[in-house]
Amino acid sequence: MKRRAPFSVAMAVMLVLLSACSPSIRVRELTLPAGLAPEPGIDIPQLTISAGWSPIGDGLIPLIGERRGYFRDAGIEFTRTNGYKSNLLTSMTPMLNGQIEIGDTYMPLLTPQMSTVQSVTTFALPTTAHVQRILAPKGKYKTLSGLMAQGIPFRQAAQEVMAQLKGKTMLLYTGVDPQFYNVALGLAGLTLGDVKTQYMGDPDMVTAALSGQGDFASPNGAVQVSQLQSAGWEPLMIVSDVITNLPSETLNMANTYTGFVTTKNFASENYNAILRFTGVLFRIIHDLDADPVGACASYVDYINSYTGSHLTAEDCSHLYTDGIYELNTFENYQAVAGPTPPNPPPNHATDYPTQTNAQIQRLQAQAVLPGGHYSASDISFADRVYHDLRTYRDQARALLATAPPGQLHSQAQKFYDDYDYLDAYRYALAATKG
Fold this sequence. Notes:
Elements: H1 9-21, E1 47-49, E2 52-53, H2 62-67, H3 70-73, E3 76-78, E4 84-85, H4 93-96, E5 102-106, H5 107-110, E6 120-129, E7 133-137, H6 144-149, H7 154-163, E8 169-173, H8 179-186, E9 196-200, H9 202-210, E10 216-218, H10 222-230, E11 233-238, H11 239-245, H12 247-250, E12 257-263, H13 264-269, H14 271-290, H15 292-297, H16 300-307, H17 313-321, E13 325-327, H18 334-337, H19 352-365, H20 382-402, H21 407-417, H22 421-432
Helix pairs in contact: 9-10, 10-17, 14-20, 20-21, 20-22, 21-22
């Protein structure tokens, strides 16, 4: 299965050139309601959406909701079963020319296009990718997690772990961004020049690693990472290790979210539908968290047919249980969306606005983005979506506590349990009025 490449300057330049040549749609400012704007009554508005998905595991998770009827519960249908095969990771053209209205992308690949693709924005960030890692046969080398479990501080442990790479062979993906490896090796006073590097594609890397052609391997694809780990390899260090333990030095590489994207036109005209769509995503994330094998069984056949892989539901589940994709559940989403304005805590660096703004500064320093004012809000309003859903949740919960029992109350509770907090509020309000 294909996995997006970590961000690199070369990739950023390519994407900017592609987007500059893409057809454009009318650009407007994102116009959202000043506050909550629930529809009157209790009818669920119906909307048919043209959607398209990329050939990556976490980008295809809407299929779980489609096949389990979750979108239909929220009044959403799709013009095409399973969506269009539109890879927005490589080109935004299908969205810019109006073929699709909602799709998926990878935030670090969207940021470099900010100056040329101004009509798109993300509204939900349900997963965080921790694909980049340095793997080795289990038990053969010291690992960061193993040393830190013994009480050894991060920098000392990282130095011991990375020193093991000196003079040995590491298999790397062709074209990979070296920033993670530079940071990790630098903790031991090393550079990539101190390691014998061999560059190749991911499928070839799995074969080479398992046949003993490399001491260490670092695939770019989530599936290949899972294949090696299932075959008895383990991570010495993961990109999230350096992001977590070196927040100030790695802030500009911490934006590793999958984002669900739409146009500013569509979002402005269908904001409540965006809230319902995001609620379904949280419902899917809940399923993946509670029963990853069962949830994967709902869409792994399409992953295989789309990407040419041969995963079982169990294989697919390891993408979520082995730390390759981190699930951003509704309950832990505050750390992603960021604090409610206007008083964020100082040095708050765990949320996507802070991380994206740091990435913007890096891109401008590298002349990938031109000078001028850019911010995370130019390409995402996921924080607003989350905070509105949370407000609807809190108000629905308060109304459910006082509303009399009955059909309206039961339906409101079902919407609440299914993360459709907008309609939970609407039905709970109707229930209080009898």
